[in-house]
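Changelog-adjacent note: as of this version, every example in the card shows the full chain rather than a window. The one below runs 325 residues end to end.
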Amino acid sequence: MSIISNRYEILFLYECKDCNPNGDPLDENRPRTDPETGEATVTDVRIKRTVRDYFVNQEPDVEKRLETGREVLIRDTEKADGTLSQGVDRANQFLTEATKGLKKSKKRDALQELILSKCIDARLFGTAVPLGKGEPSLQLTGTVQFSAFNRSLHKVSPVMVQQTAAFAGNAKSNQKSFAERWLLPYALIASYAVVNEVSARTTKMTEADLQFLLDGLWWGTAGLNTHSKMGHDPLLMVLAEYNAGQRIGKLSRRIKMINDKTDTALRSTEDYKLDVSNLLEAFKDCNALNSITVKQDNLLLCQNGEVQGDFINLAEQAGLSVKKL
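Full-length structure tokens:
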């Protein structure tokens, strides 16, 4: 599959119900929120972790991932003594193979080539791999860049839930202790990413990598089933392809929620509609736009002006050509 040569934008919406989209470990693991707007925020790191976990879950066998070029570089690995690997340890796992019989001056290039050929997350997101004392890190700018904060389209109100723990709180207690966790009753998160064809010349990201990324976003989000993440469901994904060097920008700011309830009273897709009028208008006005590809859950109702329907139908009625993902 060829290296990508055009620019892309990704708009991905998903709902979070009775869960914690992105806890802040420095604030009792409360869901991250913007203190000024009250919006929930999800970091790019959290989204990329979802995608990486999906890649690993799709093929648990490390050797097979390496053979197919879909190993995950940034993941937990152990050293021979059973302790968790540091970044330099992870680099050394590739360095030995990459530099057999090579002069020191060529080792960095060989390591970069090997990592990019074997690790899909390095091709997608780039990497900064420490190479040890006195050696500058191997740094690669990611082809895919998500917003640092991916926001909900409405205000949220985190709640703290108390539960009975499974065990006693101390050795002399005759009663079980209590556990506390923070949740959001509901949040509609709009995440946004740009796929830059210029960076792809270095990372060698392919069209196949892009499709696997989209699968990771959709099905990786749907597959989140940990104690804090159960309740994530994908609703809409829009992939826009443009001529090289061009894009509309700000896709997540070209949509808005229409609801009759107060923001913090929202509990499901039945409580609102997604206004996509500005987004469709921007697509229509963009001469550099090559294609739009969409995947949508039919529970999400979109609106363009006074017309309601799913995103694909509204786009086609607006004169746009849309493909299903």
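Structural remarks: The chain has two domains: 7-47+145-324, 63-141.
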